[in-house]
């Protein structure tokens, strides 16, 4: 997320000045911003104090970081599943499912999903295993 050049106090004071009758052109010239920027600030921060604006900005930043972490973890999971698919036999995957269930106390559904093996393959009899 790109850092703003303007503090929350500057943004809220610009919005308050606009509400108090100062012309949009004067505010924009003072802060060297476009009218569209001022109007987007008004839409986003209208009715918020500088403290509330700061909290909102912090929450948006946390959300952005969590979304970035989620994308990274999803990518990691896909990579690990492709490694499992290409380098391990079904027997190895069944043993890994058992390991996850015993060590981490998770269910069959979740452990099979993590290892990208269907539950029917996991439960299929072991006769003629590869």
UniProtKB/TrEMBL annotation:
GO terms for molecular function: DNA binding; transposase activity. Keywords: Coiled coil. It comes from the Bacteria. The keyword ATP-binding does not apply. GO terms for biological process: DNA transposition. Residues 49-83 form a coiled coil. Belongs to the transposase 8 family. This is Insertion element IS2A uncharacterized 48,2 kDa protein. It comes from Erwinia piriflorinigrans CFBP 5888. The lineage of its organism: Bacteria, Pseudomonadati, Pseudomonadota, Gammaproteobacteria, Enterobacterales.
């Amino acid at each position: 997320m790109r850092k703003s050049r303007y503090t929350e106090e500057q943004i809220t004071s610009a919005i308050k000045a606009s509400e108090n009758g100062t012309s949009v052109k004067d505010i924009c010239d003072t802060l060297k911003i476009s009218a569209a920027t001022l109007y987007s600030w008004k839409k986003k921060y209208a009715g918020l104090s500088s403290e509330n604006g700061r909290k909102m900005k912090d929450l948006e930043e946390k959300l952005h970081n969590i979304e970035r972490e989620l994308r990274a973890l999803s990518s990691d999971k896909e990579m690990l599943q492709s490694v499992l698919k290409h380098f391990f036999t079904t027997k190895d995957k069944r043993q890994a499912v058992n390991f996850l269930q015993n060590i981490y106390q998770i269910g069959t559904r979740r452990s099979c999903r993590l290892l990208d093996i269907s539950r029917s393959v996991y439960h299929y009899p072991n006769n003629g295993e590869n």
